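Reviewer comment 2.1 asked that we show a complete input and output for one of the modelled complexes. We chose the pyridoxal-5'-phosphate case, as it is the one discussed in the main text.
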Amino acid sequence: MSFLANNLNNIKPSPTIAVSMKANELKAAGKDIISLSMGEPDFDTPDNIKEAAIAAIKKGDTKYTAVDGTAALKKAIIEKFKRENNLEYKANEIIVSTGAKQVIYNALVATLNAGDEVLIPAPYWVSYPDMVLLAGGVPVIVESSADNNFKITPQSLEQKITPKTKWIILNSPSNPTGACYSSDELKALAAVLLNHPQVHILADDIYEHLIFDNLKFATIAEVEPKLKERSLIVNGVSKAYAMTGWRIGYGAGPAALIKAMSMIQSQSTSATSSISQAAATEALNGPQNYIHSSKKIFEKRRDMVVAMLNAIDGINCNIPNGAFYVFPSCQNLYGKKMPNGKVIENDNDFAAYLLEEALVAVVPGIAFGAAGFFRISYAASEEFLQNSMQRIADACKKLK
Ligand SMILES: Cc1ncc(COP(=O)(O)O)c(C=O)c1O
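Response of the prediction step:
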């Protein structure tokens, strides 16, 4: 009998964290590595937010809070949904958790029975399939193509729905592709979903504020109000306010679902940190200029990175409309020889080559269910990005 649970055989550690750890190991060994593998803004948390946390500590807000979040933070979340998404929620339709990650995990554990299917459009965030497996469900991948900017179509969605489909996970702007669904595109997907009342929608909107080209963010419950009762919106402060380490995410959905998720949270982690909740309340209620200034900076970096990548022979990069990732193809480099004589056969080989030759860490597309591509996070300074793009270009020139 194995000591470790059988379920662990089904899952793997996060590949993005694995790449970062490898990059850190090489750095510690003295190599001049540039890591473009992590999914967090390189900016500091704004001062007004830090000060709210310090004030909370000084005031003695250092005790357990209600499991599903403080009244003040829930109020700020309700106002955020009204202000930014035109959606009305009551306090019993909101949960605050330790990051958006825990909101998603709670939702899956609260709803999945063995054999229940969850539709996951590919390329996907690395954690979705493994979380579904941990919760006893079956991930069902819905493919998309680079030609359609990595977005699924109503037809591809319809084909994968079965009587066992319980959820579809939508993530726009997307990690890893930066793809954003317009409100018309969401309407077309909603038209399919309206015919299948057994399917619930988990809208992971964590990159909501990182949307460029003057596009307007849309979420499916806003676009098709008939789906609101079947939707869980997941969001948080990690990416929008450079608060990845504070661990605050939130969910908004039907009261019965939120209650079940809170029960799971009450028996696992309980409430998240009282201090982080005070900080997140200030993030949502306070001045929003950080969001606008960081968005401008990310958009400028995106343009630079895409242009430099597309100038490299063998690399093709779509222009993503959001998040802080690009997802170029390296397929035209397959069959080329590295200086050591080995041949590049797939995106894993290419990423390993970049780490060794260019000392740049990127994540192979296969980690996101999309072989042939690689993900670059441009949440790094312009100087860093310029330097790393040049290194990638130099390494690619050495391929024969
Ligand atoms: C698509 C997506 N959803 C959720 C998360 C988790 O965010 P949090 O830091 O709030 O747990 C991430 C973080 O990388 C993400 O990329």
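The mean pLDDT is 96. We note this here for comparison with the apo prediction described in Section 3.2.
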